[in-house]
From TrEMBL:
Listed name of the protein: TetR/AcrR family transcriptional regulator
Signal peptide per UniProt: none
Keyword entries, A-Z: DNA-binding, Transcription, Transcription regulation
Organism, as annotated: Nocardia iowensis
Record-annotated DNA-binding residue ranges: 37-56
Highest taxon listed in the record's lineage: Bacteria
HTH tetR-type domain residues: 14-74
Keyword Metal-binding annotated: no
Pfam families: TetR_N (PF00440)
Amino acid sequence: MPRIDAPTVAEHRANQERALLDAARMVLLQNGPQAVSPAMVGAAAGLARSSVYKYFRSGDEILSRIVADALTEWGERVRDTVERAETPAGQVEAYVRTTLALAASGAHRIAVLGSTLPRGEAARRDLVDAHHDLAAPLRTALTGLGNPNPDLTADLIDGALSRAIERIDAGRCHDEIAPETVAFVRRAVGISHRQSRHRGKG
């Protein structure tokens, strides 16, 4: 019987699953999505492949889980920052700044890399829904600004953010890209300097 390194079996399983997911993220970042398999993840976590199957049925399931976790964490951090801004204008700016800061930290690479393999229609649909949910705080802020089409405008802003993130990934300095992107978005949605004086706390 395997050794239980926790007060309860449930805690042991949770610890093992967390170790596997941490190992999977490392494999993904170092070797790409094709390397995320039960054998590779088990080896990285110091567990036999048969042990991995007690938690995940396949490499695709592991990928889906770590991408979902990355998007959830990303969404929580963006939402928390946006909600602390005092005005709709400040919320839009907080969304842009936080998204770029997270990208500069490398946090987005897990979601990007893990999303590059085709993993079935349901998985792709879940990913599209998750990305749509990430922009919910931005759409709310745009509605508060009186934007006539917050869905389309949010999509266009996210397109601009994607290009900005590509520049950061290519080696451009975040401190150079972020102010320019904020200024671009401010002009695009008609945020005046007076409106953006109070960008929120933190």
